[in-house]
Amino acid sequence: MFGDRCLSNVVEEFYKIRQDGSVREYEMRFEELKALMHNYNSYLTEDFFVLSFLIGLKPENRLVKVIQPKTVK
Predict the structure, then answer these.
(1) Residue 56 and residue 17 in contact, taking contact as beta carbons nearer than 8 Å
(2) CA 41, 43, 47, 51 torsion-angle sign
(3) CA distance 47 to 49
(4) Closest listed residue to residue 53, CA positions, set 24, 18, 20, 12
(5) Quick check: 2 and 40 in contact, CB under 8 A?
């Protein structure tokens, strides 16, 4: 699915990802993009990915932010 995407497309899609459906659907899309981002940018930290994941959640699902998760899972 993502094999033919260049770095700029991956980065753009990663920064635009938002939860439209269920949290599980969003998590699956996010994890795919996260893996690609990490392949291109191995210096990105888990904290960066956690914050990015939380930002993409629907506002009513952001309550998890209060517990300050250490990983996306």
Answers:
(1) yes
(2) negative
(3) 5
(4) 18
(5) no
Place of tokens 């300050």: 68
Beta-carbon neighbour count of residue 21 at 10 Å? Answer: 9
**pLDDT digits (tens), the chain, 73 positions:** 445 568 889 999 999 999 999 999 999 999 999 999 999 889 999 999 999 999 999 988 877 655 566 666 6
**For 21, which DSSP code?**
S
Q: Which phi-psi region, left, alpha or beta, contains residue 19 (left: φ > 0; alpha: ψ -120 to 50)?
A: beta
DSSP letter for 4, please: T
Residue ranges of the domains in the chain? 7-67
Q: What is the pTM of this model?
A: 0.78
